Amino acid sequence: MPTSKTILGWIDHNLLLVLSGFLLAFIPLYPKLPLFDLIPGYLVRVRVEDIFIALTILFWLIQLARKKVTWKIPIAKLLGLYLLAGFASLLSAVFITKTIPFEVLHLGKSVLHLLRYLEYFALFFIIFSSIKTKHHLRILLLTGFITLLAVAAYGVGQRYFYWPVYSTMNREFSKGLRLYLTPHARVQSTFGGHYDLGGYLVITLPFVLAALYSFTKKKEKIALFVLFYFGIWLITVSASRASFGSLLLALLIVVLLFAIQKKTWLKRTTWFFRQTSLLTLGTSVVLVFFGQDMYERLLQILDGYPLAHTAYEQVDTKRKEFLHFLPQFQVEKPENALSTEEAAVMVASDTRPTPQRPSDVYVNVPDHKLVATVSAEGIESMILVEVERTYSQNALERGLSLAIRLDTLWPQAIAGFQKNPLLGTGYATLTKESVQQFTEAESTDNNYLRTLGETGLAGFLFFYGSIITALWLSLRTLRRVDQQLAPIEKIILVGFIAGSIGLLLNATYIDVFVASKIAYIFWANTGMAMAVYLWYHNEK
């Protein structure tokens, strides 16, 4: 019978691993339901995962004080320098550029964003410290795969069985409003939006493909094959073009990294083209059967190219004719429930397009405007009235999604960088029209521009420098000790390299490194990769 000393010893040695596995599963699976507001009226709220992460950080700090873990690991100094740059940016924004008012509400919002980065980085240290053996790597990788399966299964429930949707796409939705998807709405599974889900798949599916190439047992390969194409289905029905393109790049890198390990150029070339052909075929089959929304999104890219547009439409027509003969599956809608489209009409923060609207706007939702009015008693007041929304030429030509970036979000970030190239204008300042304005959410839809605008060159170099350094160390390990690597180690390194490069591409269109669920998993993956790196460089 184990004694209390034995139990305490086991907890001391393994609790961090247990907590790490729990966080890797809980963070993607638990919907973004808020617990309470830290800042009234702000979209970023405290959620359950914040509590669990805080408790895990506390345990890690205790272990650090006991010298059971260390913070002296690769890229740790760069992450620390980024946090210092972020703090310097806050001071600069308050006292030099004066883009953040010295008030609790405004200053608190910017400090909150800095603390969120600290929370993201904490996953890097926690996961790294929890890994002591290859078996620990296997446990965490298996946890990630089972979690992906559960995320995909929930996506099926949303798509076909009206399982609940909890979105953070606007202020009202983010309060925890329970919705369901309409037939052509984008699946987001347990995530706050389809972009978040897409980013998660970009950094997760490369690990599955790497495992598929590494494992040799037939049952394992069949299970991984099913899981991989389950993930391909999920990103297809999420209809996120940017994430889909980024994932294709990441998967191509996985194939390339395994191909170059072959002994001759002939074998490398043959293996590469065979695997890319199989991937293309498998992905095409998924697109044919489930890619209606993705087809429409991709078609918008070709609006300015008539010949390509016509050819693409002809292919899509043949696809629809083929699907017409297949049996249709339909489930009754839940009673007293609200769809995402109906909710969008009810929410004032969304917009209703005019009859002439961009190609990627489908739902007519009213815009609202404050106008002055005078009562019969001569009292002036402001009332909210519905007005038709007008669109820029960019929106009509390129679609609303890209136009918002070109017309507003990206110029705002560039202006923030120009105002203070070294330190930027501070966190949560880029979307404000005036210094005193309180914005309920922040978005630039280009993580590079957002980093430059908020923290300047200092923050940009330290943040992306840490990612590039982790990539370089992982690639160097893969090249120099390839023959010594166990399959699990190779999976971790290849998956991290490919997923990170895919996410860096995705960051040109989405703020992926500040999307909480993506950021947590990314830095967790980084921790696993750096653990493998240090095993072969005698520094751990």
Describe this structure as you would to a colleague.
Strand 3 (367-374) and strand 4 (380-387) form a beta hairpin. This protein is globular. The longest helix has 34 residues, at 447-480. 63% of the residues lie in helices and 4% in strands. The chain has helices at 4-29, 48-65, 76-95, 104-130, 134-161, 194-214, 218-238, 241-259, 265-290, 292-301, 306-324, 340-346, 393-398, 400-419, 447-480, 487-506, 516-535; strands at residues 34-36, 46-47, 367-374, 380-387. The strands form two sheets. It has a two-stranded antiparallel sheet with strand order 1-2. It has a two-stranded antiparallel sheet with strand order 3-4. Helix 14 packs across helix 15.
Topology at a glance:
Layout: H1 4-29, E1 34-36, E2 46-47, H2 48-65, H3 76-95, H4 104-130, H5 134-161, H6 194-214, H7 218-238, H8 241-259, H9 265-290, H10 292-301, H11 306-324, H12 340-346, E3 367-374, E4 380-387, H13 393-398, H14 400-419, H15 447-480, H16 487-506, H17 516-535
Antiparallel strand pairs: 1-2, 3-4
Q: Looking at the structure, what is the overall shape?
A: globular
Number of helices: 17
The arrangement of helices and strands along the chain is HEEHHHHHHHHHHHEEHHHHH
Q: Could you list the spans in which at least 5 consecutive residues all have pLDDT below 50?
A: 348-355
Number of strands: 4
The residue-averaged pLDDT reads 86
Strand order of the largest sheet: 1-2
Oligomer description: single chain
